């Protein structure tokens, strides 16, 4: 949702943000620039679209503002514009053919058009999006909760709110996004139906036994199960947090170097666990903590320090 809100204007005004698309519209804008009555013609045609997103342009409108309005033009509007400005008709017809072909989906639906709040065939998109979103939520099996449980009320409200949100967003954004929303919700709904059917016919005890058998085989081979690996990772994270929060538990430079350099051999083959051999360690092979240990050791050497105090 945050990403959607951040990209809302980009989705609504694609030509203003996509250079390749803007270039096609710019051909029209360049052709009609300075033409007498061009802005008035665009405003008149725009009003006929009955779109709440088409606003009247000022006489000194910028090229980007003109493109924002032309973005909502359908085939009929482009035809009217070419007729209103005969001197630029060839450019308008050529560019509009490209634009319409680029945005056509099927059944005359233009993916750049916004359904809006005026009744049209485009209303099918938000309606279907809301319907499939609702069906998807209803087909998803939910745990049985007591009516007094706050989670039950939240689940019920989300079942209604999500479809309503889909309905609204598909009304105020281009049809292309709505079509994606419909397809996604439909796929999710069908997927959930298939999963439900499979789980209804599945033998849960057999599935549990099968998973136990797999886990036993992995253990026999010395491999850890997913949960064991997850627990190990969690334990390491807790240990690292403890080292940060508890100074007394922190390792010495020598211990850190020994762990993180992974015993990279020094010049005499004694290994990096020997603090003195940190000078010859290949720092590119160290981990982050190992690198820090190395830098500290170099600092101590250059400034005549030892861990027991000054030399």
Tags for this model:
mainly alpha; 4 domains; two-stranded antiparallel sheet; 64% helix; extended
Mean pLDDT: 75
- Summed up, the domain count is 4
- Which term fits the overall shape? extended
Structural class of the helix and strand makeup? mainly alpha
Helical content stands at 55-70%
Number of distinct helices: 15
Strand arrangement across the biggest beta sheet: 1-2
Total count of strands: 2
Structural Rg: 33 Å
- Give the topology string: H per helix, E per strand: HHHHHHHHHHHHHHHEE
Beta fraction: under 5%
**Low-confidence residue ranges:** 260-278, 306-311
The biggest beta sheet reads: 2 strands, antiparallel
- How far is the first residue's CA from the last residue's CA? 60 Å
What does this structure look like?
The chain is mainly alpha-helical. It has four domains: 2-103, no CATH class; 121-201, no CATH class; 207-243, no CATH class; 251-310, no CATH class. 64% of the residues lie in helices and 1% in strands. The chain contains 15 helices and two strands. It has helices at residues 2-6, 8-12, 14-17, 19-32, 38-48, 63-70, 75-84, 89-103, 124-139, 150-172, 175-201, 204-220, 226-245, 253-260, 288-302; strands spanning 305-306, 309-310. A two-stranded antiparallel ribbon has the order 1-2. Strand 1 (305-306) and strand 2 form a beta hairpin. Helix 14 packs across helix 15. It is extended, with a radius of gyration of 33 Å.
């Amino acid at each position: 949702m945050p990403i959607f809100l951040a990209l809302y204007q980009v989705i609504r005004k694609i030509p203003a943000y996509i250079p390749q698309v803007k270039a096609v519209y710019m051909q029209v804008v360049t052709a009609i620039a300075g033409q007498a009555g061009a802005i008035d013609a665009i405003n008149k045609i725009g009003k006929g679209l009955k779109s709440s997103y088409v606003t009247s342009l000022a006489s000194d409108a910028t090229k980007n503002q003109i493109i924002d309005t032309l973005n909502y033009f359908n085939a009929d509007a482009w035809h009217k514009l070419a007729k209103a400005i005969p001197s630029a008709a060839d450019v308008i017809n050529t560019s509009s053919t490209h634009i319409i072909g680029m945005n056509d989906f099927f059944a005359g639906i233009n993916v750049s058009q916004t359904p809006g709040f005026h009744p049209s065939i485009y209303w099918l998109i938000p309606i279907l999006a809301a319907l499939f979103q609702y069906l998807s939520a209803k087909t998803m099996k939910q745990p049985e909760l007591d009516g007094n449980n706050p989670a039950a009320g939240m689940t019920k409200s989300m079942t209604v709110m999500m479809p309503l949100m889909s309905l609204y967003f598909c009304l105020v954004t281009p049809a292309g996004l709505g079509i994606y929303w419909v397809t996604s919700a439909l796929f999710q709904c069908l997927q959930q139906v298939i999963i439900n059917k499979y789980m209804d016919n599945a033998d849960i005890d057999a599935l549990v036994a099968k998973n136990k058998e797999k886990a036993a085989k992995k253990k026999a081979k010395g491999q850890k199960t997913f949960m064991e690996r997850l627990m190990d990772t969690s334990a390491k994270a807790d240990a690292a947090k403890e080292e940060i929060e508890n100074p007394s538990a922190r390792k010495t430079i020598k211990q850190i170097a020994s762990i993180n350099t992974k015993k990279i051999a020094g010049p005499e083959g004694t290994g990096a666990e020997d603090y003195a051999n940190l000078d010859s360690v290949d720092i590119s092979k160290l981990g982050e903590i190992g690198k820090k240990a190395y830098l500290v050791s170099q600092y101590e050497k250059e400034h005549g320090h030892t861990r027991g105090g000054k030399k």
